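Quarterly update, task 2.4: iron/sulfur cluster-bound model.
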Amino acid sequence: MTSYLKSKLLNIIRCFYDDIAPILLRLTSLNPFELLISTIISQNTNWKNVEKAIANMKNRGLLSTDSILKADVSEIEDALKVAGLYRVKARRIKEIAEKLRSWSMSLEEILAMRFEYARSKLMELPAVGYKTADVMLAFKANAPVIPIDTHIERIVKRLGLVDEGAGYEGVRAILESFVSPNERALFHLALIKFGREVCKARRPNCHKCPLNDVCKSSNVRT
Ligand code: SF4
């Protein structure tokens, strides 16, 4: 049953690949620092508002470590007002720039290191945990990793692919066991889209979900 579920999930999520391809292009076109800042801004914020906040940062010349170090936190806050938790995020971005300045290696050099080293180094940055580090590695270092966000964790647990208590690495391992390395970045984005549109946090649309026959959490009565 589990292998049927995995292959069905993969086939369903692949149907979202065409829709999500422009976002993949957009993410890979950002430089590492822009992607890092975008990922911090995206916490609890939809992608449209992230784009607006990034445009504001760009218009104010705030998309480099040096410019952020020189800027007052209030200037960064002003640019981020369209995003949630903008005060906290502005402080974090400033702290990240300070930490990056203290390193002898650039972000680009870190991303070129082997996966485990680069991941742990990135996680020394304020507000950077597994997910943000893995996003950086997936989109800027071509690492065959599936970053796990709250949507992905919710879907995997609802489907019963892992136990409720599984942590980040457990969820990542199960997905990486059946998604080929060259499609993991796309799969990550497409699964998030599925979580936003179908397997929503509050009201999962199980009636319209093509996985409702194999999902242990489906609310469709048969
Ligand atoms: S059946 Fe419902 S709970 Fe299960 S994956 Fe689909 S939307 Fe989510």
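Highlight for this quarter: The chain has two domains: 2-20+146-208, 30-140.
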